[in-house]
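Quick one: structure for this chain?
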Amino acid sequence: MLLNYIKIAWKVLLRHPFYTFITLFGISLTLTVLMVLTSFLDHLIGSHYPENKRDRTLYIMQMTQQDSSRTSRQSGPMSFKFLTEYAKSLKTPERVTICTFINSSNAYVGSQKIKLNTKFTDADFWRVTDFEFLEGKPYNEQNIANGENVLVITDDFKKHYFESATEPVVGKDVEIENIHYKVIGVVKASPVTRPFTYADVFFPYTAPKSNYQNTGMRGGYVAMILAKDKSDLKAIQDEFQSHIDRIPLPGIQDGFKYAILDVKSEPYLENFVGTIMDGNAGLKTIFFGVIAFVMFMLMGLPAINLVNINVSRIMERASEIGIRKAFGAPVKTLVWQFIVENIFITLIGGTIALGLTMIVIHLINTSGIIAYADLAINLNVFIISLLVCLIFGLLSGVLPALRMSKLNIAEALKS
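Got it. Here's what it folds into:
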């Protein structure tokens, strides 16, 4: 029976090419936008290179200090000393790494200036992340203890700095801000949308200008905590919070007297949204509400337009419906048939949209709009896109099917 419904739907599509074009154009355009958005969101918050273990990683991004009346506050990254004392000392995690966010430096090739995004890290950075080393290896605890001026660079920086992009560069000299460093490794670059791992050049935290010896609580460092298993995340959060709760209050930071101290270890999405919303639960609700509304508009408005087209298409088949009703076809069967037909048409539009999405994603990845972008249609994106197709098909098919079921047999046979 299902195969017969699909055959009928195919015949209907061939009957009116113009209606078919309008229908498939509306479906494919809408689903292309949704698939690209889904792919971008997955790229932004999913577990991808080099943060493939995001599902069992907690992020410590900022410290917030407030006075007792909550009228004044300071917030920002922490010092290396603070994170060493309160995060590195955790017993539950598999590993903890401390690194800076994105800093900036300059290098020169002849008279040409290369603007660099740089990052200072500890040795565990390379164990918590999954960078692909194209040459050499990461610096380790011994390199750091010896105070060696070594660095890891990306393949993109290698192309810009060295004359040959194919010759090995491990052991060669790089001059950055008038300081000479030895290249110890070359990695595949990370996208700019992953600020915990994105950089052109990676230095050990003991390198010049890292400010790792700052004795205060605030500084330029953040941390990533890798759990042995996802089930350990709650225990790690509790352990970290117990460490924070032991900090004596009130305190003074750079002349600011604070009575409230807030430092959270959270999964990436919660950390990302929490930072944007500045920890305000009401703003988080509004944020997700706006996203839900935008998604509804993207799906709802095209679905309403498609409903009108489907109603017209179904009304043209009134005589067919009347004959089937006259021969005893139950309303439930007719409604199910038209819903199946609409889902089938939507899946055709979804297939077209899949091809368009792959083209759009390729253009985004190669355009340079997002540095080192790696948007893709992976299993998660495909499953979500398939569900969107089915929901879209149902949204635009149920109302016309119900409208059809109310047709009077006599009136239908006259049309």
